[in-house]
Amino acid sequence: MKNNIVLTPVAAEGKTQPEWVTKIKASIPFVGLLLVVLFFQIISKGRLFSSGNIPVLINDVFTVMLGALGMSFLMAQGMFDLSMASTAAICGITISLVIPYSIWLALPVALLTGLFIGLINGFIVSRLRVPDLVGTLAMSYTLTGVAELFLGKGSGSKAVSAGILVFDNIILKFITLILVALLCLGIYNYTSYGIKCKAIGSRRQAAKLSGVKVSAVITVAYIITGIMSGLVAFFSVSRSATSSIETGFNLHFNAMLALTIGGMSLAGGASSRFRYAIIGGLCIGVIANGLSLWGLGSLAQQLIRGIIFISVIAITLNRKKMENIK
Amino acid sequence: MDVCHLRSSKIQDISFQLHKGEVLGIGGLTDCGMHELGRLLYGIIPPDSGYVLAFGHHLKGIDCAIAHGIGYLSKNRDDESLMTASTIRDNICLPSLRKLSTGPVLLPSKTLSFANKWADKLNVKMQNVDQYVSDLSGGNKQKVVIAKWLGYNADIFIMDCPTRGIDVGVKAAIYRLIEQLKKDGKAIVMISEELPELIGMSDRVLVIKNGKESAWFDRSPQLSETTIIEYMI
Questions:
Q1: CATH code for the domain defined by B2-85+152-232
Q2: Which of A3, A189, A269 sits opposite B85 (nearest CB)?
Q3: What's the pLDDT tens digit per position in B111-139?
Q4: Which residue, A67, A114, B179, B187, shows the most beta carbons closer than 10 Å to its own?
Q5: CA closest to B152 among chain A residues
Q6: Phi and psi of B147, rounded to 5°?
């Protein structure tokens, strides 16, 4: 066996690019955001930034960005949580259950429910070693089933005491979003947790052999998406005073769409940046709002989002790194 | 480090003691079980029976081994020792993150100076520490791995084929580095398929054949490749 003559393969991935190429690549999401804003500003004849629309716009951006912020830690590891929407639905139900006692219980209970579901997801993916897509997809069906049990089949919904409407406040949402973004930014860039997430996305086995407690890091990331789903559910319920199967509808899809449009690689890893969640969240929020202003129904909107998602991935996918997607 | 009656699917009853400032060479044919022995020592695979002690502590699993100052250089460097699609900085800092944090906070300036310090110490040829590891040559990649464990202040190094796929010039640098580590009182297990390196670097050589101890040699000028090969096959 002459294993020792095997030459190290020359770097196949990530060859050093000229600086201007990297710079242009990094600025694509910014330019994209600008174009999207301009496009809808023109098409809506200036209504996008009208005083009547701005609260709606913030609402749209708010939900998408919360989801993207939550999912960013998971996607940095190259993993996904497809159960965010149904987690939010369950959180909506637990809110409706505690509201009769006190409206102040709503938020803590929603967050705790999210945390608990995140813990289960984390256990399924990290300990039971079920692939993340399959595990969370199955979880999503299970949770939807539970939600339907409570709300009645189909698009059942349950009215919640109108007291909760006090939380439907645009300034409160704005402050919450800023706080959550700062908190995530802090965790992402200024704690060892952020580095560990990217390390797992880069190469799980190497991270493990360097002492990263992979299962714990994965579980925490699922807890974060769970808590974020709880937060989204809380504001969604407080907006309509109903808990329904549609609470948090499309949450994880929009989050993934936002992150990839912001520039996140599906495989995660070292190239993952925090700003992707912010830019992508803004972009998708504006698109959703702009499409509504344009007068498109939700079906057409879904169609467009699906097409955007596939196009973005087809353009940005690094096929040499496909082996990393497991 | 004490290894007592270690057994697994490919290893049968191997025991030895590793001392401070010693290079213990382990040689044999590729599939004799020596690579698995390295993985057993580091806790990547659990032994069927027997145990590994480091500074009097039982080692159970990777995290435990790292906590007791053991660093591992894998034979599959690009898959197991390095995140090639990541920066030199992240690679070097990964095991030492707790040490670099103050409370829950980890300042980027700290990881930067830490990575710079150790990359410089090992003369890693690079533009800066935020360069991707995949851009480096085999030898420089290996230097990054060693920098990672030196920065962590590991006392015991388990090196599985440390000069695999490395050109002659950098190979010499790696040998000098191992000599230096030895002088600094680190203990090194060097698992190698290359006989000249085993004979030249090791204070003792353990030859493994079919998972069993086949022979022990001390450092001596008379030790020749042919003698070792006799015990290998």
A1: 3.40.50.300
A2: A269
A3: 999 999 999 988 888 888 888 888 888 88
A4: A67
A5: A210
A6: -60, -40
